[in-house]
Amino acid sequence: MFNRRPIFGITLFFIVGVLAVYQDWNLILVSAMALVAIVLFLVLRQSNIMISLFCIAFFALALFLTNLGIARYEKVSFNDGEKYGIVGIVTNQGQSDVYELLTINVESVNGNNADFQMQLYVYNFDEIYGYGDEIYATTQLNNPLKAKFKGDFDTYNYAMSRGLRYIESTDSSAVELISHNNKISISKLAFGVRKYFWGTAKELLPADEAAFSQGLMLGDTLSFTDEMKSNFRVSGVTHITALSGTNVSIISMIIFFLLSRLSRKRVLINILSGLAIIAFYIIVGYSPSVLRAVIMALVAVTGNLNWRRSEVFNTMAISLLLILIYNPFALFDVGLQLSFLAVLGMALFSKPFTNNERILKKAFVILLIPTIFSLLTTGIVTASSFNQVNFTAIWTNIIVVPISTIALVGSYIMCILHAIWIPLGQLASYFIFIVIWLMKKIIDLSANYAIMNLKVGAPSLLQIAIYCAFLYLLYTVEVKVIELWSRKHS
After folding, report:
1. CA distance 232 to 396
2. Whole-angstrom Cα distance, residue 486 to residue 480?
3. What confidence score (pLDDT) does residue 413 get?
4. Which residues of 452-486 are buried (b: 16+ CB within 10 A; e: fewer)?
5. Topology adopted by domain 83-179
6. Would the pLDDT of 421 be above 80?
7. Who contacts 343 (Cβ-Cβ below 8 Å, separation ≥6)?
8. What is the 3-state secondary structure (H, E, C) of 99-152?
9. How confident is the model at residue 82 (pLDDT cuts 50, 70, 90)?
10. Is the pLDDT of residue 359 over 70?
């Protein structure tokens, strides 16, 4: 495994290095990892010493980067409970009917220079701020709290994984506009496109359906009602409104299809496809799960340029390693964990089927296998983060995921048609309304009859290890069963 896919081992050592610092593990772990590297070197058939050296090097790099990140985080400190006057630049904006959510690059606090990023919930808002606007706000700066109990929402982990120092709220009366940003930039154009898609869905669709469409296209669930959030969680389909590989795959396929009809030049098609993927990432905003999908897509595009087919496991490891080098604390982002484990489950457990075309032609394999095994591999995260194991999600996802793909593509088309000619967008909105309404009814039904939704406590490290051993055993049994089936029907 490590000999054929050394990047896997390197990424694993980097992850352990991040955990070693974050969990305050002692030097025993450092010695243990060095020993493991030596053992790996000895057991590798080709006795490749470079793999072991790279594992140790990236483990050391993880220790350095994680310590550096914590030092930078702790360097910015203010007294809890006190109010401060901050001046900063708006880099992202979202809104619901109740509040406006601003992401701000803070430049000064009480007149003193500062340099950190925060999120600010503004209630009773009457002004919509745009990208690059400079604002003044009076708010508290309280340190994000770690979860007191396993399974509780961990504000500290969330803030660290998103590069945020503070997450606060204030009233609109405490926020003032200093200056509008009138400069043209790529980031501002991307922000404008994002707000156009958001506003078009709100204009053409009823409230609930518009919120659904915004979630599918942009991953923006701020307009979701509490009932919608609860139903999505109980039915196990929260992932369809989390920007990830589905969105990137659809955008990539559409762009590649259109370009292939306009030109036969392979290099030009792949370069333009790569640029379109990067543009999509800039438009939807930073998210670790989207970044994972974007990196994997760009690796695939690069492989096409060199006439080489990318290998999914290596691509996953490379993308995760790059994300963690940029921000080691992205490891604790639940969306990233679900995204990686879902893809890993589908790739790993679907692999034995790829060598048997007769099995692949069966509809139940196409529908069931990816859904079941992605749910199995993400089970640890759902148990840890949401305190539930959801078997209802199996049948719900089998029905909802194909429909959500239609709704996603249709929502993008609706917004584009609306920009070309408003009546066309309005006409498309009727079709999107029907599709989303149907999805919503299925999700509501699933949530109301979620008889296989089990409440559980957050698993311990021992339970996680046992579960991983179970998955390995399940994979071994799957391989043997497929081999027997193939011999019997050969």
Report:
1. 10
2. 10
3. 92
4. ebeeeebbeeeeeeebeeebeeebeebeeeeeeee
5. OB fold (Dihydrolipoamide Acetyltransferase, E2P) (2.40.50)
6. yes
7. 245, 312, 316, 374
8. EEEEEEEEEEECCEEEEEEEEEEEECCCCCCCCCCEEEEEEECCCCCCCCCCCC
9. very high
10. no
**Measured between alpha carbons, how far is 347 from 352 in angstroms, rounded to an integer?**
10
Q: What is the identity of the amino acid at 86?
A: I
Give the per-residue pLDDT at 465.
Answer: 83
How many CA atoms lie less than 13 Å away from 321 in the CB half-sphere? Answer: 20
Asked if residues 119 and 155 have their Cβ atoms less than 8 Å apart, the reply is no
List helix spans (H) across 178-287: 186-204, 207-218, 226-235, 245-262, 266-284
- Nearest C-alpha neighbor of 365 from the set 378, 377, 351: 351
- Beta strand pairing status for 134-140 and 175-179? antiparallel
Give the containing element (helix H, strand E) for 454.
Answer: strand 453-455
- Band (pLDDT 50/70/90 cuts) for residue 169 is very high
Percent pLDDT > 90 in the chain is 30
Q: Where are the domains of the chain?
A: 6-75, 83-179, 226-488
In the three-class reduction of DSSP (H, G, I as helix; E, B as strand; rest coil), residue 180 is classed as coil
Phi and psi (nearest 5°) for 170? -160, 175
* Residue 17 dihedral angles phi and psi, to the nearest 5°: -65, -40
Q: Give kind and range of the element (H or E) at residue 21.
A: helix 6-22
CB 40 within 8 A of CB 8: no
pLDDT at residue number 420: 94
- 212 near 199, Cβ under 8 Å? no
Q: How many CB atoms sit inside 10 A of residue 87's CB?
A: 18
Residue type, 142: N
Q: Is the pLDDT of residue 306 over 90?
A: no
**Helix (H/G/I), strand (E/B), else coil: 80:** coil
> What are the Cα distances from residue 159, in Å, to 73, 147, 274, 338?
10, 12, 30, 18
Q: Which residue has the tokens 């396993």?
A: 150
Sign of the C-alpha dihedral, residues 380, 382, 384, 389? negative
Q: What's the mean pLDDT in 74-96?
A: 92
For 380-400, write each residue's pLDDT tens digit. Answer: 888 887 777 777 777 788 888
Give dist(CA 216, CA 448) in Å, integer: 22
